[in-house]
Amino acid sequence: MIARTRCLAMAGLAAQVALAPASAGAAEEGSLRLGGYVESIQGAAFADDLDSLSAANLFQNRLRMHWSPSAVPDLSANLEMRNRLLYGEALRNQPGLRTSLGKDPGWIDLNHLVLDEAGAVLSLSVDRAWAQWGGQDWKLVLGRQRVNWGMALAWNPNDFFNAYNVLDMDYEERPGSDAVRLQVYSFDPLQLDLVAKADGSANEVGALRLGWNLLRYDFQAIGGWYHDRGVAGAGWAGNLWQAGFKGEASWIAPAQGRTDGELAATTTFDYALRDGSFVSGSALFNGEPTGGLDRLLGASNGVEGASPIDLFPSRWTFLVQGSFPVSPILSCGATILFAPDLETVIPMPVLDWNFAEDWELELRGQSVLTYGDPDGRPESGWRSLAHAGSMRIRRSF
Fold it and tell me: What is the fold, at CATH topology level, of the domain defined by 2-396?
């Protein structure tokens, strides 16, 4: 505990010392900006009883750097680092956690394991590193970046380049891609977005997105290839009366030796109240789900990634989410996910408290409940597969 506290204090002090001269330089020349956060996440998980309780401790730091030379205002560069120290019983009990910390999914390996012991892993990684150049009608971006083509809230079948796991609560920035991206805005009313991604294997991805606005709705159409298969997608975002109405769908061509392609589609309704409350509902259709409950339990630990045409191991999945502001600095909410094919419900309550300027405390829970019995006896009713809870303290700078 003393060592962890000392690390937190040193990291916060280093960030503040680094920011002082950078802020002065930015004010004078407008060229360099720094930011980020330091956080500690203390978690615990157990299966069917408290005898299986295991603790997981994550100390995480994110540093964001943006540079724009005064002499070339159309050019800028961005670098973001994600550094994680994970220790505790969960690291010993879940080998997938260690694997995920040591893996870099990009074309260039920008992840370094400074410490790799039985009870602790320290990973220093660069998950954003890109240069951007452009004018009023076009923009070219090269490097590790977030290509966000999703339009719905919970799931994004149109996110061909960096799909994410909806149950991963510790990575709000979401994955990035090593890619080249060209955006063109001069073909009014169409917007063109061309992206090619490489990861050092045969799993390249490339696609062209056309976007336009019609009848106060934003639409998009996508075509390209995903790994070694053709892919197409479409999406929309707008309002239906006073509620937000969004959706997207993707289809991928048949794999070798098969005659049928795969389809994934989702839709979302969301509504914001005047008091700041928010509620949304989403549905996902996954044409070819894989993995079942075993994959679901792995995903709930934040280990597994996602494919845009296999975002959840259930053919149909429904999600309801809501949040309510108790006060200007305190809010509470909950997410409930229901997978009828797996007869599984996942409730996830959350409490968020901004107790001081740039400081945040979050309490979060997650349970996996399923109906029936492993031996197929439905009379056994509901049973729990796993429970987890976490406390996060974050200092932003």
Answer: Porin (2.40.160)
